[in-house]
Automatic annotation (TrEMBL):
<protein>
    <recommendedName>
        <fullName>4Fe-4S ferredoxin-type domain-containing protein</fullName>
    </recommendedName>
</protein>
<comment type="similarity">
    <text>Belongs to the complex I 23 kDa subunit family.</text>
</comment>
<dbReference type="GO" id="GO:0003954">
    <property type="term" value="F:NADH dehydrogenase activity"/>
</dbReference>
<keyword id="KW-0004">4Fe-4S</keyword>
<dbReference type="GO" id="GO:0051539">
    <property type="term" value="F:4 iron, 4 sulfur cluster binding"/>
</dbReference>
<dbReference type="GO" id="GO:0016020">
    <property type="term" value="C:membrane"/>
</dbReference>
<dbReference type="InterPro" id="IPR017900">
    <property type="entry name" value="4Fe4S_Fe_S_CS"/>
</dbReference>
<dbReference type="InterPro" id="IPR010226">
    <property type="entry name" value="NADH_quinone_OxRdtase_chainI"/>
</dbReference>
<keyword id="KW-0479">Metal-binding</keyword>
<dbReference type="Pfam" id="PF12838">
    <property type="entry name" value="Fer4_7"/>
</dbReference>
<keyword id="KW-0411">Iron-sulfur</keyword>
<keyword id="KW-1278">Translocase</keyword>
<dbReference type="InterPro" id="IPR017896">
    <property type="entry name" value="4Fe4S_Fe-S-bd"/>
</dbReference>
<feature type="domain" description="4Fe-4S ferredoxin-type">
    <location>
        <begin position="55"/>
        <end position="84"/>
    </location>
</feature>
<dbReference type="GO" id="GO:0009060">
    <property type="term" value="P:aerobic respiration"/>
</dbReference>
<dbReference type="GO" id="GO:0046872">
    <property type="term" value="F:metal ion binding"/>
</dbReference>
<keyword id="KW-0408">Iron</keyword>
């Protein structure tokens, strides 16, 4: 009994195997795009959201007015703010903590801030020695 070559290809899925090998072989001869990190850096998008920063006025005073909108809008509950009232009746922060292990870098805090106090920078390289050091004050 003879089997046609077509049945062998279909039975053993050699057709699909050869199709996969052709795709792989095509990539073998293309230009490689491996980047040798950390010696080489990839370009970052202008919309990249990295490490948080609290801005100050030119006289050195913090911009944050302790409205706590960023704390309320944070979906990961990563922001904690403590504030007290000053003699002149304004509120200012006494403690502003961002837990970077909880933060999902969504940028909602930056959008919610009425005085543009908090910004997400382009810094993407930072590390922590212990779990407590992941909280930025």
């Amino acid at each position: 009994m003879q089997f046609p070559l077509r049945n062998v290809f279909q039975t053993w899925s050699l057709k699909e195997l050869l199709r996969g090998l052709l795709v792989t072989g095509g990539y073998f001869f293309r230009r490689k795009f491996t980047i040798q990190y950390p010696e080489e850096k990839t370009p970052k998008s202008p919309r990249f959201r990295g490490l948080h920063a609290l801005r100050r006025y030119s006289n050195g005073e913090e911009r944050c007015i302790a409205c706590k909108l960023c704390e309320a809008v944070c979906p990961a509950l990563a922001i904690t703010i403590e504030s007290e009232e000053r003699r002149d009746g304004t509120r200012r922060t006494t403690r502003y903590d961002i837990d970077l292990f909880k933060c999902i870098y969504c940028g909602f805090c930056e959008e919610a801030c009425p005085v543009d106090s908090i910004v997400l920078t382009g810094i993407d390289e930072y590390h922590f020695e212990t779990g407590e050091s992941g909280v930025v004050s």
